[in-house]
Structures are given as structure tokens and as C-alpha cells.
Amino acid sequence: MTTTQIRFMALLRRECNRFFKIKRQTLGAPLLETFLYISVFGAALGSRIDKLHGVDYVVFIVPGLIMMAWAMNAFSNNASSILQQKFQRSIDDQLSSPASPLELLLAFTFGGFLRGMIVATLTFCAASLLVDLPVDHVLVLLPALFLVGVFFSQLGVLVGVRAEQFDDVSVAQTFVLQPLIFLGGVFYSAALLPEPFQTLTHFNPVYYMINLVRYGFIGYSEANVALSLLFLTGAAAALFTVNYRLFRRGYKLRA
Amino acid sequence: MVDMALQITDLVKRYPTGTEALRGVSLDIAEGEFFGLLGPNGAGKSTLIHCTTGLAQPTSGSIRVFGHDAIEHYGEARLAVGLAPQDLNLDWFLTLEETLDYHGGYFGMPKKDRRERSKELLEAFSLTGKKDDRTRTLSGGMKRRLILARALMHRPRLLILDEPTAGVDVELRLELWHYVQRINAEGTTILLTTHYLEEAEQLCDKIAFINDGQIVATGTSDELAAHYGVDGLEDAYLELVGRKELSRGPGIVREIAS
Questions:
Q1: Interatomic CA distance for residues A124 and A143, integer angstroms
Q2: Which residue is closest to B46 within chain A, CA to CA?
Q3: With an 8 Å Cβ cutoff, are A98 and B74 in contact?
Q4: Chain A neighbours among B 109-138 (CB < 8 Å)?
Q5: Which residue of A has its CA nearest to B156?
Q6: Closest CA to A112 of A68, A74, A161, A151
Q7: Where are the alpha helices (DSSP H) in chain B?
Q8: 3-class SS at B48?
Q9: The sheet that has B4-14: what strands, in order across it?
Q10: Is A182 helix (H, G, I), strand (E, B) or coil?
């Protein structure tokens, strides 16, 4: 291994070590939460709801839940990890090392990305035991989930870097992220919404992400798949660029 | 010609608020020197250290560590510097062994080397029995020792100690003094900031006074006393901060007696 590889692995191991050490909170709790969503909305209420676009209601919502698990965990991991290290000033150990801004950004990004991936994979496995979940377009599903992971990891990094207190992270999570995800159509089809809500939903970026993931699983999408993929790639790249500039400037990291 | 461990030239650090923490600081520290940086709170000591280690971004000026640029192309410069900061900035989630291991990793040390070096340092600082404990469970003195061990993990040629003995008991202070004197004798250059003047007097070959973001005087303890026309380092320091009425020197004793 080169010194750059050793350094990057150390930075990444530190990020993963953190969430593995508190796995009841970082892996167990989100898994239970998703399981409860499937039980309540799928098994309990779903039996009273007609099929949506040819699939059982519970099957319709599971792709959104998997996407939500990846997104929320990627976001909250990175935002909390960065803020906690800033708060303790333990981040100075990384900042005073020879690590470049790009290495630091990638390590923080992939910490949350991997946590999201683990929770989403466990959610998928658990859901597969409970419902018959198809995977219709794996070549759309994998890049879509990858991009969702990268996008929300970047968003977590951005919020973590900008945050000055823990309240800043929970405000972003509770008042911005959660409404966007819930109103993006995890639990319903936007096509069933009355106007103007149907049109308003089209301005929610998460709507396109949910549609991509849903298309990957059950082959149904209300949005153009190619355009959605393009939009998501552009959004993830734009966020990455913003974060890279902030890391290069040392914004709220270096005095 | 003497090789320079640290060369700072015309360093200016201006914060966005307009505060100028460093106002054209120039400082040379020769390789192998034990150098003290003294000054009152807010004089610019920590800012100077932060600029050297990448924790603050200088507004202008240059910093070279063993000839390597420490601002733009900082890779080699940072490899050569170990920082034991004033704050006990340990990661609560990590054990002592992990703290050293990750630090070694950040500086590119291979696994085998990291394992051997962390074992050696935990032993040297009497922390072996605690190696699997999380850092938040340590006492203040143990945290201070771990921070010094972490700074030494990647075998830096320049060790920066920012008030390393603030708030530690006499026993640990003497223990730390012995350790840093030993590594200085082995060739490590040391930059020390402290508020304990006797510490600077006993340990440092050379001392610089910094005040209001500027280096005011540099020299040995005796040279600084001579510079201010006083008897010792303490009186020289009191002259620096404009509080000579606090002097405990012979002059004041005579005045009280009369």
C-alpha cells in the first residue's frame, strides 16, 4: 500500500469505526424503524389498500423505504460525525496531517455512504423475508442507489461542516430532509395526488430519486428514468463540487 | 551553516472580523534547538502554531519546515511536525491504542510500524494498562500524556508543545520535562509555549517573546534579561507585558524594606 492509500484507509476506518461502536443507535435503530414502517403501513394498513399500479401496496412502498434508509443514514452519519469531531476539536488530528482536502472529503463521504449501504442492505434482506420483492432493472437500481448514497452523504458533509451546534443538524434533518423524503412519495404514488400537490411534488428532488429506485425494483416510474438519472448525477456532482471548495478553503474547519 | 527546522517570514494572520492575530512575524528555529515562545494570552502563540500545522490559514508570509513549504505544498512539512495542542482534543469514541493507530495511519505509517510504535509509546507514557479503554475515561493527566504520545507517534523531527503542562501535577510535569529533554537530546527540535517561566528557563536554549502579534525579542534567558536591563527572565517578561510593578526581584525587596 502507498502512503496515500494507508492514509485514506485510516481516515475511512475511523469513520466506520465510529458507527460500528454505536451500532445499536446507528444500525439497529434505523433497521427497526424501517421494519416498523413495513409492519404498520404494509402489513396492517396495506391489506385495506388496493393494488397500486399493479403491485401490492407493501411492495410499492418498500423501494422507497430502502432508499430512505440509505439517504437518512448517509446524511445523519456524516453530519453528526463531522460536527462531533469539530466540537471536540479531535478533527484537528486529521486536519494537521498531510491529508489533502480531497482525501478528507472522500473519507467523510464514504463513512456515511457505507453506513447507509449497510442499513439499506439489511432493510432489503429483512423486507425480502416479509414480502416478495422483485428486482426488475438492476442496471438502473444499482447506479440509482449509488447516486442517492453519494448525494445524501455529500449533503451530510455540507450540513456537518456548516453546523455550529447539534441543533443545526437536527433542524436540517427534521425540517428539511424528512419532509422532502416523506412528501417525495415514499408511501404513495404522486399520480394520485390532487392539484396543485401533484405539480408541487415535481419540484421535490427526492421524488425523482424514489421513482428511480422504485423503477429498479418493480419496473414502475412516474418520471423519465434517463432524465432522472442525469439529474441525480448532476445534483451529486454539484454538491461534491461545493463541498470540495469548502474543504479547500477550510471553511469552518481551519481558522 | 546551521539547518533550520522552522523558518517563518513576515507571517500575517488576519481573521475575517478584521482582528490581526499575527502582524508580520519572522522567526528562525535551528535544527535540534529547544525553543520557547512566551507571551501573554492572546499574543498570537497558538495562532502561530496553528498556521505552522495547517489548522489556520495565514493571510500572507511564508512558513518552511526543514526547508519544505508548510502552506501550499504542505505534505512533507506536515510529516515533519508533531503537535501536542493546548486543548485535550481526543476523540471520545476511540480507545488509546486506536488513537495512536489512526494518527500513525494519517501520516502513512504501515500497520506493523504503527503497532510497534504505539506499543513503545504506551509503555513509555505508562498507558499500556489502559490501551483498550476509551479516551473519555482517562484522567486529565493521562489525556495529557496520550496527547504527547500521539504527537510523537509518527516520529516528527519538529515537536510543537502548546502549553503541555497547563493544569498537570508536579510529578507529571517533571515526567514530561524529562521525556522532552531526552528526545531533544536525541535530535528532535522542540518548540514550546508555556506560561511557566521557570519551565522555559530550565528547558529552552533560546526564547522569543511575542506580544500583540509581533516577536518583540529573541535570545537566551540571560540575553532577554540584558535586553530589558533586568535580573532574570521573569522581570524581562514583566517588562514585556508592562507590569514591572509585580516584580519579585531584589529591587522591590529593597523598596519594601525601606
A1: 16
A2: A255
A3: yes
A4: 109-110
A5: A97
A6: A74
A7: 45-53, 75-79, 96-106, 111-124, 140-152, 170-185, 197-203, 221-228, 233-240, 250-257
A8: helix
A9: B20-30, B4-14, B60-65, B68-69
A10: helix
Q: Which residues pair with A232 in a beta bridge?
A: none
From the candidates A4, A91, A96, which should be mutated to test the interface with B, based on the most B CB atoms within 10 A?
A96
So what's the pLDDT on residue A41? Answer: 78
- The three grid cell numbers given for residue A232, joined into one nine-digit string: 441525480
Q: Give the model's pLDDT for residue B255.
A: 54
Confidence at residue A10, expressed as pLDDT on a 0 to 100 scale: 97
Distance CA A253, CA A250 (A): 5
Tell me the nearest-neighbour CA distance from B35 into chain A, angstroms.
21
Would you state the pLDDT for residue A223? 87
* Mean pLDDT, residues B191-209: 92
The DSSP bridge partners found for residue B190 are: B34, B159
- Chain A residues touching residue B83 (CB < 8 angstroms): 92, 96
Strand B68-69 versus strand B60-65 pairing type: antiparallel
CB contact under 8 A, B85 and A92: yes
β partners of residue B62? B9
- ∠ CA(B39), CA(B40), CA(B41), 5° rounding? 125
Q: pTM for this structure?
A: 0.90
pLDDT digits (tens, 9 = 90+) for A192-251: 788 888 888 888 999 999 999 999 999 988 889 999 999 999 999 999 999 999 999 999
Mean pLDDT of B100-110: 98
Q: Are B215 and B48 in contact (CB under 8 A)?
A: no
> Is B7 in contact with B63 (CB distance < 8 Å)?
yes
Residues of B in contact with A89 (CB under 8 A): 85, 87, 89
What is the DSSP code string of B191-205? Answer: EEE-S-HHHHHHH-S
Query: Are the Cβ atoms of A98 and B104 closer than 8 angstroms?
Result: no
Helix, coil or strand: residue B73? coil
Q: Is A115 on the interface with B (CB under 8 A)?
A: no
Task: Give the lowest-confidence range in A5-19, A43-57, A60-74, B27-41.
Answer: A43-57
Q: Do B108 and A4 touch (CB under 8 A)?
A: yes
Q: Rounded to the nearest 10 degrees, how much is the dihedral formed by the CA atoms of A89, A94, A95, A100?
A: -160
Scan residues 67-106 of A and list those with Cβ closer than 8 Å to B.
Answer: 85, 88-90, 92-99
pLDDT band for position B250 (cuts 50, 70, 90): low
Helix/strand/coil percent split, chain A, to 5: 80, 0, 20
Q: Which three cell numbers stand for residue B205?
A: 536554549
